[in-house]
Write a structure and sequence with these properties.
The chain has 283 residues and is an alpha+beta fold. It has 4 domains: 3-30; 33-91, no CATH class; 96-130 and 246-273, no CATH class; 139-239, Roll (Chitinase A, domain 3), CATH 3.10.50. The protein is 54% helix and 12% strand. It has helices spanning 7-28, 40-51, 56-64, 68-90, 98-113, 120-129, 155-172, 197-204, 206-213, 250-275; strands at residues 139-148, 191-196, 220-225, 229-239. β3 and β4 (229-239) form a beta hairpin.
């Protein structure tokens, strides 16, 4: 029988044709949804979102100077993230997910906020309109000697002991350091440095704070009553409230002005987006 009529040859030829057909369709007809293209732009975006920083120039330099093994790890990380994202989308995990919905909304809001710098004139205007936000409250520095009413028969007894002690201290010229050894243990601090009236009130009560804030500096006085007992007080320094000049807090004011401007741009952009939709209310 001629060789071209051999059944075995026919079988081998058919198998070869099927193999070639399979290879051809596998390479030219692959599913584009299963192809992940890794390019420079995608890696830069991946770097920025991973670092939560969006300085394109900085990350271009980082990518250009990245060692091969670090670049390989970066690519692997991007491919893994993209693979999992596509798998989640194919499974429909994004459907009816309120958390994902909010994340997408936040991304649009971020894009709408922009990053335009605030002009110097606008910073100055912002400072003038918001000076109260930068006011530094007045502060006191003082020490005190505490007489605990719980350690004595009555409140009046504790007050009299405090009066007698004050007389001795004034006579002896007791100073800041000498006073550390006198009186009873207090629940909070012995010395208070550059503290606001509100802070002092939180430890001693409002009446005590008002009295001390008006006291003469450099002289023991008292007894001043608090919720705990009586105090002999020496105010050593007082700093009046003030509003710092713009030059001394320019970084803080600039940041605040940029945040306000960004929020305003976001709101304006959201309004423009909403206006592009027809709203039909059907309850």
């Amino acid at each position: 029988m001629p060789i071209y009529k051999q059944p075995l040859l026919h079988f081998l030829v058919l198998g070869l044709l099927l193999f070639l057909l399979f290879k051809l369709t596998a390479t030219t007809g692959s599913d584009p949804g299963k192809t992940i293209v890794v390019d420079r732009e995608k890696l830069l975006t991946h770097l920025q979102f991973r670092s939560k920083s969006f300085s394109t120039g900085q990350f271009e330099r980082t990518l250009d100077s990245m060692p091969p093994e670090q670049l390989s790890a970066l690519i692997d990380g991007y491919v893994q993230e993209e693979s999992l994202y596509r798998e989640a989308m194919s499974l429909g995990l994004d459907a009816n997910d309120y958390v994902i919905r909010q994340r997408l909304i936040q991304k649009v809001e971020y894009l709408a906020s922009g990053s335009e710098p605030v002009a110097q004139s606008n910073i100055e205007d912002f400072y003038e309109k918001n000076k109260d936000n930068y006011h530094v409250a007045s502060t006191l520095t003082f020490t005190h000697v505490f007489i605990n009413r719980e350690n004595h028969e009555s409140g009046e007894t504790a007050r009299q002991i405090a009066l007698n002690l004050l007389g001795d201290m004034l006579r002896d010229g007791t100073d800041f350091s000498d006073a550390m050894q006198l009186g009873d243990r207090f629940a909070f601090h012995k010395n208070y440095v550059d503290r606001t009236e509100d802070f002092i009130a939180s430890h001693f009560g409002e009446a005590f704070a008002r009295t001390v804030s008006k006291a003469e500096t450099g002289k023991w006085f008292g007894p001043v009553e608090s919720a705990y007992g009586y105090h002999l007080v020496l105010v050593s320094d007082r700093r009046e409230g003030r509003t710092p000049p713009l030059d001394s807090i320019i970084a803080e004011v600039t940041y605040d002005a940029q945040q306000v401007a960004s929020r305003q741009r976001t709101q304006d952009a959201i309004k423009e987006i909403v206006l592009t939709y027809d709203v039909v209310v059907d309850l």
